[in-house]
Amino acid sequence: MGLPTLEFSDSYLDSPDFRERLQCHEIELERTNKFIKELIKDGSLLIGALRNLSMAVQKFSQSLQDFQFECIGDAETDDEISIAQSLKEFARLLIAVEEERRRLVSLFCIS
User: Fold this and answer.
1) Could you give the angle at the alpha carbon of 59 between the alpha carbons of 41 and 109, nearest 5°?
2) In degrees, to the nearest 5, what angle opens at C-alpha 29 toward C-alphas 26 and 33?
3) Cβ atoms < 10 Å from Cβ of 83
4) From CA 85, how far away is CA 7, in angstroms rounded?
5) Model pTM score
């Protein structure tokens, strides 16, 4: 059910029915205004959280790239080499995902 219609011509009569319909519209406008303000607040919080996530992912991927095994003996084992390469590849994937996320967010957000 929608709101009752408001006719400009009814405003001249200023009847109790008109005032009641007008009050229904005012209540709906107030509710809509409150909802929009809440959406703006939640959206701002989400954008802030995405920025924090982005920084955390970048820091984590940088840590993965910088990780070095301290080898025991003269050379790294095959397992150590494989693990180090896997960590670096995972870091590259995280960076790629983060770049795409930033690109998508920039399409939908201004600032």
Assistant:
1) 30
2) 140
3) 14
4) 73
5) 0.66
Residue 14 · residue 21 · CB < 8 Å: no
- 91-109, pLDDT tens digit by residue? 999 999 999 988 887 777 6
Joined together, the tokens standing for residue 6 give 């408001």
What does the chain come to in residues? 111
Residue type at position 15 = S
Please say whether the beta carbons of 98 and 54 come within 8 A: yes
In three-state secondary structure terms, 77 is: coil
Two tokens, residue 33: 């205004």
Provide the CB-side half-sphere exposure for 85 (13 A, CA): 7
CB-CB contact of 102 with 54 (8 Å): yes
In whole angstroms, what is the distance from residue 55 CA to residue 77 CA?
33
Q: Is 4 helix (H, G, I), strand (E, B) or coil?
A: coil
Using alpha carbons, list the distances in angstroms from residue 96 to 5, 71, 73, 99, 103: 53, 30, 35, 5, 11
The rounded distance, in Å, linking the Cα atoms of 73 and 48 is 47
